[in-house]
Amino acid sequence: MLQRIQTIYLLLAFLVTGVLPFFIPLWAMADGKAYLFMQNQLYVVIFGLSTTLSILSIFSYKKRQNQFVMGRLNIILNLILLGLFVYRSLNLSGETATVSEKGIGMFLPIVAIVLLVLANKAIKKDEDLVKSVDRLR
Known about the structure:
The chain is mainly alpha-helical. The chain is built from four helices and three strands. β1 and β2 form a beta hairpin. α1 (5-18) packs antiparallel against α2 (41-59). It is elongated and about 65 Å long. The two termini are 22 Å apart.
């Protein structure tokens, strides 16, 4: 059943981790150039894994437990990515006389985490509903 609310949340998480990083820079360097996620191979890998987990989670709607576990793994990946961004931004501030600007792209993992938590909450709600119906039989 692809028409559930967690599918919407997972689709939005896919857009946040799979589409928006191509258009939103993570931060601006001191010389004014935008720093996109594609300039660091580690960011590319983590964004790619997060996007893949979101898509796999959308299409594993028949196995709610697997969907829930994939959501948790995706949250952990986004927390790691957020930690890398924070570490990078703390090291970025002491560059030169012109200070680099932090971009709105650094908040993408936070948005993805919120969407994934909402999706996991809806998956858990569905699982509890199915268990309660099975108990009545």
